[in-house]
Fold these 3 entries.
Entry 1:
Amino acid sequence: MVTKNSIEFDPYIERKAFDETKEGVKGLVGAKITQVPRIFHVSQGSLTDKNPSVSDLEIPTIDFANVHVDKASREAVVEKVRYAAEKWGFFQVINHGVPLNVLEEMKDGGLRFHEEDPEVKKSYFSRDFNKNKFVYNSNFDLYSASPSVNWRDAFSCYMAPDPPSPEDLPVTCRDAMMEFSTHVMSLGGLLFELLSEALGLRSDILKSMDCLKTVLMICNYYPPCPQPDLTLGISKHSDNSFLTVLLQDNIGGLQILHQDSWVDVSPLPGALVINIGDFLQLITNDKFVSVEHRVLANREETRISIACFFSSSALPNSTVYGPMKELVSEENPPKYRDITLTEYTQGYFAKGLDGTSHLSNFRI
């Protein structure tokens, strides 16, 4: 029997209709809608979860200025990285070596693409990484089990190990993407060294496990939302990566779940946000934590952020990962079974951003 309500609202049909416009959330804003479509509505439980953040807490900020000066200075930085990776899963870095003009041009380039003529953007619209180097769409998990659609559009591109040719990238952000990713990979090398040392291991151990090999760049675009209390920019999730390097603008909205409270990751001019991903929590046997986070929608301003994921998610990878043998013992046995990143990612994508931890499915 078909109920009246099911005729009125079929989420799949409405998601597909939204997808087929190829204009994303930006298209809805351009149409001057005053009400958020139902597919974007988060559950009442998620709404009551929008508790005010804890205003007196801030994620750690680490200054990398002296990391190469001498052994004592480096060890002081390593200790701060260890504390942040173990207790917070998130930290901001300053004096990280990426020039300010490179950061600004990347934000500007991302904004230029997302505010480009819709017909130009449509030429890059796809959901298939195997056919396209540069992919633009709205909500990678649109057709997954995720209960609601997020108020954001994005473009994605693998910048390593097989970087795109310049002609694969839109003119609006081509140079910015190439330059920013070069700097991010250099910073990634340093971060994985410091994290290795924070584990008490040799500095090249994580690099030797190919944690640094693959970089996926995603540029998120969050236009103003007419009813920000009904939806989210990104639902609560942890990252499908070893490590994530995030460049955010000055609008704010990113929050992390710390000791059962939401804590704002306040924008810090010139800083980059670093967070531990699921794979690093798994291989460090819970020593480092991959923390759930989300982005709030806002009514007034457009937010842009560029995330670089050290992860092979959509690319074939047969390497098996499990808790590192150097970190397990009789007193501290493995907490996770061995996995491939491909296996993990397939489940992560199928589940979508539904507010639950995918990592918990692999616990022993």
Entry 2:
Amino acid sequence: MGLLKTDRKAELTAFDETKAGVKGLVDAGITEVPRIFLLPSPENLNTDQEHSLPTIDFKGINEDPIRRKQVREEIKDALGSWGFFQMVNHGIPVSTLDEMRKGVLAFYEQDNEVKKQWYTRDRIGKRVVYNSNFDLYSAPVTNWRDSFLCTMYPNPPKPDELPPPCRDILLEYSSQVKKLGCSILELMSEALGLDSNRLLDMGCAEEIQVTSHYYPPCPQPELTMGTTEHTDAGFITILQQDHIGGLKIFYQNQWTHVHPIPGALVVNAGDLLQLVTNDKFVSARHKVMANKVGPRISVASFFLTSLGTQTSKVLEPIKELLSEENPAKYRSTTGKDFFDYFYTKGLDKTAALVHFKL
């Protein structure tokens, strides 16, 4: 069932102009997945469960030096092989996590006419960007999800710039996630044998974007994808996923399901972290399955370098991690150049990082 480029463009435009996202299609009662969402071949929804993602207990890392050293080693192992780990006892109360998910759900469940005011494809200067598929017109296949993104740091939005259903909790949650992310980046620096502030001083937490995804129930989940296989572009991502699951990571040549643990958060390395650590930490491929059950809610907090032209630092492999046996594997870039490339390319199974390899 080939779809001509002109037909596809017209169908994408028609979908985009509804400003109702995938949720709008489901609310309208569709029983089949529209053509723009169809994968080239059906997805296998079953996965061998041989591997289990490392779970790291953060309890006591600031009080007990022995415990801190142990956690550091666990992070080093997890990010060197999986590129991912789950963490428990991370310090963000379960009540805050629950409220954040409820706030996201309330945003998406508003009347569409109210929600439309936030819908845009223009990221420039916008505090809140709500749309379906940031790469709608460039990606080969449309994903079965809607998203809204808020840039929460370095200049947090004023409360009245945020959608009322999740305004207060978004400010509270992002403030707690920022603190946690900085603490993780310090542990990562130590794990690499560097000064604990090294990654922070390089600008790994200069900008934080909190992106809330809504995956509606799908009538034919094997025919489409919640999120296409990809690697994250930034330094680290802290992900909250609900009980439905669907996240899979590519590890040792097979897809492994990440089972949700109540109250846990998932952490993963992005392409820029792999670049500056010269492959000491890996940015792993991952994807999200579509599901008959839903909606699935997830909240991803991306830790990035500042993306403004004036402030964009040069990013390159850290000198102390290089040697004659282990020379730099990536060329220098700036955060702005890296992300310009990432957004233009869209999610197409090839990591943006490949473009920067020496």
Entry 3:
Amino acid sequence: MGETRATSQAVRDSGLPPVITCREPGSFARGVMAERHPALIKQVREAFPYGPRQLRALDALLHEVVHGVVEPLGFGSPDRELWLARGREHFGRPWFDAPFLWAESYFYRRLLEAVGYVDEGPWQGVDPFAPFKRAELRGGTVEEELRALDDLVGLPAAERATALLRASLWGNRADLGFRGPAGETVPGEADPGLVADDSESLWALLAQDPAVTVAVIADNTGRELIPDLVLIDHLLEHGHADRVVLHVKPGPYYVSDATTADVVDCLRRLGRAPGEAGRIGGRVWQAMSTGRLDVRTHAFFCAPYPYERMPEDLRAELGTAGLTILKGDLNYRRLVGDRLWPATTPFADLTAYFPGSVAALRTLKSDVVVGLDPQTLEGLRSGRAWRTSGTHALIQVRAQPGGPALSAPPRTG
């Protein structure tokens, strides 16, 4: 599952559904490559006073993506050989022929090369997406959402836990890369019904052992990461976890994906807020200083592969967690494999390789979805828009085989 050689005889013979590519006209993947990525290049180009070298590189990348073929990284790039090994079969061919997962990941690596983020020089280490991230944190929507935390203080513990889990889930809509060509957010209000809801199983897993370590693999910063930090605070404060390990990207990736610097920015935003938000920010800051919340990263989080191909050190680390929670659409695609699976394919079957119990919290913003029951699938709107519009979401859980049964009442206090 998840190999990039979608057209190989081995894959055809395996009976697996095809890997998603950008070839099909009108498809979501093609729209991302043909419209969103060029729009992002233009936005990055205008966000900084880049010099002629960076501007020429951005313009060349724009032309290459739309009209040319995939080119390798420059000879001076430190990871040129790594990427050559990762995708030799894609170089010299149109971007639209490559697997969607690989093409997206390589596009962001090429964008970082174009602006000088990796290479030694004045722009090294300057996050090209930072202006977009900071603008969101300063926005009025974040302020309103922080004030709303005061309304949860008096709720019964179970209701508060449910509200915080849903806030973390629906916060995944706040994706700065999930924009139309003009920069507008894709319209549509969230459907109040989830297409899959294993939240009781999630809380039941967390009720089994108060000394458990929970791993959270983050997705977006800003309006998603703040609810994630609030949920983490709840897990630590109410005995659902003795320790949380928050995994973030090692560098800028997919526009708004969270890095360590973004965690710090979100924590400062929380800590400056009045009321309950500020108290939560103080507790999370303290949890980091004592090691109860540990922020980590791994190069594999920026690799163009599904989690089935994770390296042994990451597999061993996640295997020590009582539960790993994966946030967001990209993590979901990497978890189950970026293929055109039938929507009723069992989630547990596709995640059986994962080293331990795993939960996915994800707003649907791409074609991949599994684990739906036939009745739910039948009741969804006709067409495929529900898969990609960000108006639907899911919570799916697979418990570690041989682990505690999930029949115990969920502990949400």
